[in-house]
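Students often ask why inverse folding is considered easier than folding. One informal answer: many sequences map to the same fold, so there is more than one right answer. In these notes we will look at a single instance of the problem. The structure comes first.
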């Protein structure tokens, strides 16, 4: 029987169990680096299916191995993130979160269920592919410094480096059954800004006797936009947004401190570092000119995610062979961030998108309290990842 047909048949067989797995994970979400029950559940499935694994990596992370013919030939790693978000779920579904204030609102339940379903298929096909498949169940994608960074630092590839790493992520604006690829630069870096403007607070009716920290902060918010609009090359996408401002004064009180938080994102690592220095320099000089002081702290987040050009084009070609050209689309860049970028900085990788919406489950933004998916997407998720794995290892 043709390998493609065998994968389709196994996907059909495993699909109901994959739905059950996804619903269990969705109903029992856990926050970043606290995924102890999720980790135990994944291990129980790997044990049940006779798949070799190691757990307790970065506390809750797991790596598994499926060894095909000639296991030393190639090493292909497949990655799924397992953590949830601090969101109160508002979906009215039987598998609604039972952990109040925690929800799988970014599709990590789908990613984990898909990788488990893929693992079960590939375990059945061990005699059909060359090399070894490494399964990476990664904690803490939603929280800095990122579980990907920590798993790499803990040495998951110390014994053997991968020939490539593949990951998929849900895309709520794309129909179930479709997938999308973007060779090269795909997702932005993400840095967090923490700014405190300090001065002598006092009565709002006597600004000449105090430091107007609120006015200085307002000028700083506006001026920071010039870092992007005047210093970044027009060809380099960049975003600087201040999303939190706390000026805890009153109608007639100027506070001694104003606190702000924001994000800076771009798609060029050299410009990223230059922008950090320009932001700090601008803030110090502007605020000092208004008689105040500033504490400007930047917490470096995830780097730019760069898909390997050759591997991603090959992955798109293989996806078309399985699903048909009409179900495989080209993606545009995104200013959102992903800690899978740490893998892409070190190894040949591709990070592709899995469509999850239908007329019955319309598009709802990621990180929304009503985010959900059409579970038909799981069949595409498990069959494609299995097909990509076999295609790359046998090529």
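Output (designed amino acids):
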């Amino acid at each position: 029987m043709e390998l493609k047909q065998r994968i389709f048949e196994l996907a059909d067989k495993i699909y109901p169990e994959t739905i059950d797995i996804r619903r269990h994970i969705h109903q029992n979400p856990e926050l970043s680096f606290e995924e102890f029950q999720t980790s135990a559940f994944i291990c129980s499935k790997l044990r049940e299916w006779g798949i070799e694994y190691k757990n307790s990596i970065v506390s809750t992370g797991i790596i598994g191995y499926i060894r095909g013919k000639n296991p030393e030939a190639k090493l292909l790693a497949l990655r799924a993130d397992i953590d949830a978000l601090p969101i109160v779920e508002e979906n009215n579904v039987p598998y609604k979160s039972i952990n109040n204030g925690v929800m799988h609102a970014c599709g990590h339940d789908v990613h984990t269920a898909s990788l488990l379903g893929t693992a079960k298929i590939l375990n059945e096909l061990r005699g059909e592919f060359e090399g070894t498949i490494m399964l990476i169940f990664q904690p803490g994608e939603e929280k800095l410094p990122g579980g990907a960074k920590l798993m790499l630092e803990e040495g998951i590839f110390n014994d053997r480096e991968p020939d490539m790493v593949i990951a998929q992520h849900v895309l709520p604006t794309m129909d179930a059954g479709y997938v999308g690829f973007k060779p090269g630069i795909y997702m932005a870096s993400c840095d967090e800004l923490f700014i405190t403007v300090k001065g002598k607070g006092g009565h709002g009716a006597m600004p000449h006797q105090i430091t107007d920290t609120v006015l200085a902060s307002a000028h700083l918010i506006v001026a920071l936009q010039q870092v992007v609009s005047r210093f970044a090359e027009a060809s380099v996408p960049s975003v600087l947004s201040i999303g939190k401002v706390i000026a805890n004064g009153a109608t007639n009180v100027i506070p001694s401190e104003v606190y702000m938080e924001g994000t800076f994102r771009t798609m060029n690592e050299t410009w990223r570092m230059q922008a950090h220095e320009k932001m700090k320099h601008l803030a110090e000089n502007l605020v000092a000119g208004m008689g105040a002081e500033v504490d400007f702290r930047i917490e470096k987040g995830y780097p730019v995610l760069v898909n390997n050009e050759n591997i991603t084009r090959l992955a798109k070609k293989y996806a078309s062979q399985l699903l048909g050209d009409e179900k495989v689309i080209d993606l545009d860049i995104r200013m959102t961030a992903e800690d899978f970028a740490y893998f892409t900085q070190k190894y040949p990788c591709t990070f592709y998108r899995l469509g999850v919406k239908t007329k019955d489950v319309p598009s709802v933004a990621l990180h929304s309290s009503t985010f959900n998916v059409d579970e038909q997407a799981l069949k595409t998720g498990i069959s494609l990842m299995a097909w990509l794995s076999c295609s790359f290892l046998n090529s």
